[in-house]
Amino acid sequence: MEWSYRTAGELVSALRAGAVTSGELTDEAIARIERDDEVVNAICVPDFDRARAAARRADQARARGEDRPLLGVPVTVKESYDIAGLPTTWGMPPYRDFMPVEDAVQVSRIKAAGAVVLGKTNVPLGLQDIQSFNGIYGTTTNPWDHARTPGGSSGGSAAALASGFGALSIASDIAGSLRTPAHFCGVYAHKPTLGLAANRGMVAPSEPALPVDLDLAVVGPMARTARDLTLLLDVMAGPDPLTRGVAYRLALPPPRHERLGDFRVLVLEEHPLIPTGAAVRAGVNRVAAALADGGARVERHSPLLPDLTEAATLYTQLLVSGSVARFPVESDEQLRTRVAGLSAADQSLDAARRRAMVFSHRDWMEANNRREVHRHGWRQLFTEFDAVVCPITPTPAFPHDHHPDPLERRIDIDGVDYPYFDQLVWAGLATMPGLPATAIPAGRSPEGLPVGVQLIGPMSEDRTPLRLAELLEPKTGGFQAPKQRVARTGRP
What we know:
Blueprint: H1 8-17, H2 22-40, E1 43-46, H3 48-63, E2 74-78, H4 105-112, E3 116-121, E4 133-134, E5 138-139, H5 155-162, E6 168-173, H6 179-185, E7 188-191, E8 218-223, H7 226-236, E9 264-267, H8 278-293, E10 297-299, H9 308-326, H10 332-340, H11 349-356, H12 361-384, E11 387-391, E12 410-413, E13 416-419, H13 425-431, E14 437-444, E15 450-456, H14 463-476
Helix pairs in contact: 2-3, 5-6, 7-14, 9-11, 9-12, 9-13
């Protein structure tokens, strides 16, 4: 029997029943990676010897009567997480030999739950792209079309899941880095509420692995089913034992509803700053139709929705100012000269990005104060609705674009070019206020590419969008393995 595309839940049941061993699952996963990953290039740092040893320990533990949530299940880990004995580079060549001595807190948690780590998955340089390529490990391709990106920055994890390389993956998200690869590769992902899951050890190699409260960024699960997302989130969620975990314990509330017909959902398909491509619009409408067919209350407009233009601007300001503070792109003098040349009338997102590169602390505080106003607006909206359905990006996976200046790249939306990073407005809708968002498959484009949507839920009520994703799964088709098997044609 082939196990590679079984869900994590099915693997746990089979392991408990004695139908398969962890050693057998791990050997099958490794064989598939060795056979198929040459062109996909999802697993940039294999750890097969230690995986086989962990599988043996899992089988021995089960023979002793032990039972943990992920005992014996093969998984992958995004390269940006520290794993003792493996390099953590974030795709940055100066750190190709950096070797952490301690596991990230989330790696420790999945190992304690019994997971077997197959290796690390590829990322873009500094986790700063909507694609996954770097000068150390090369380019990860989309399993559905090798000429296209699997997304970023968790593109390696999404490509691995779509290729059957492990049942689960842990990744991260600040600009759709969980949701966009899931959308591009046809898998599931969950961006948790900001701060819900401890992030220590998911840190650039230039920085110490401290229990820092990050702004915007989260760590979260990826899987091939909605139920598996919940299984992995339950392992990941909770405060860092070095800080809030000293005094607090997590108790996530149950989902607001258990039946599809009880949900109240706001559906959005258009953004004022960038059009939605026909394929993604069709995916949003497929989900809307499935909701209506299941008896849910579906609305298309609400006066309670926070202003989308201001939300996108605030997100851009917070994202770019934080990014440039950590990874300077030019000297401060050069940046200020560029910004001084902008017209005061230019209120485009591109202008907002450039201005945010020279933000003062006062500028950031003003943006942060406006964010709190938006958060309160979302609280009010979620008194009338249980979830918001909307795009993740305006298009399915796009062709590889390795132009050295990302600000010069363009995204083609139904034949018209737009600034590359403007496509982040939909990801920022949940990221800026720190809301949970679950990415789900929503069918295929006319070219056969996966299309996904996100279900945004109320803050700290992560089980609500996760439960909605689970209820929608049989109606929207869920995960499907790529129809065209991986060919040995080399990497771009």
